[in-house]
Amino acid sequence: MAPRANWKGYLKLSLVSCAVELFPATSTKDRVAFNLLNRETGNRLRRQLVDQVTGEVVEAEDQVKGYEVAKHDYVVMDDEDLDKVSIESTHTIDIESFVPRSEIDEVYLETPYYLTPDGKVAEEAFAVIRDAMREKKVVGLGRVVLYRRERIVMLEPRGKGIAARTLRYAYEVRRDEDYFDDIGDVKVEGEMLDLATHIIGKKLTSFDPTRFEDRYQNALIDLIKAKTGHRPAPKLEAPRPSNVINLMDALRKSIAAEKGEAPPKARPTRAAAKSASTGATKKEPKASKDRAAKGGGRRLKKAG
Asked: Closest Cα partner for 268 from 260, 283, 279, 259?
């Protein structure tokens, strides 16, 4: 059974319009969910809102929204007031512009939806808009009011329908420079780059979301089954990787593991080789060390 539409209204391109419905493209109903319980009684708990001054419980019918205009001074807004805020995008997605899909940075993408025609009468106009975007290889940009907030929406042809994706506003997206500027300018080339690209090539495949399972949820389910059957909880050990000291050695071992071969013998790092070389040149015969120690001792005695 298809879910209920989150929004119903019209899709508009210039003077062409049609009735449409917007459905959520994803679902969380199959996720493991927990209830809060009273540890002593085992009964479920219910959250209640209380007046922060009187401490008394405030029932749902007495709860209203308020906007603080000054310290402890609020403008009260009830549902009837908010319902009066109606703009064009409350009931119409007007496609304002079109851009190549590649121009929209992935970091702006938010919630996915499916847009469908609402009834047979709307199908022809819907198909005209959908197929025109597909022909021009572009996505449409419009706006829609969802959950009492106007959101940018990207429209992209998908099969017989249109995939809609709400987008974040520019002020909601943090600048990547604030995080990446401090990363050193490391230049990787030669054999090290060849080995890494070889490993990537071996793992290259097509995206298939069914290949991925929620392993954390599976572990939770196993834990729930164990506790239900009064069995000991399964032991889970998750190894934690650390920073690689010898990167070239790690790359070679990775390739050997892919081939099922024995890992190659580790080669010393440049730092280790340099240290060993320095130690070898500084090594002295035991007699020389003894003479140096005696001489040092004499000088120390004389100075005293």
From this structure: 279
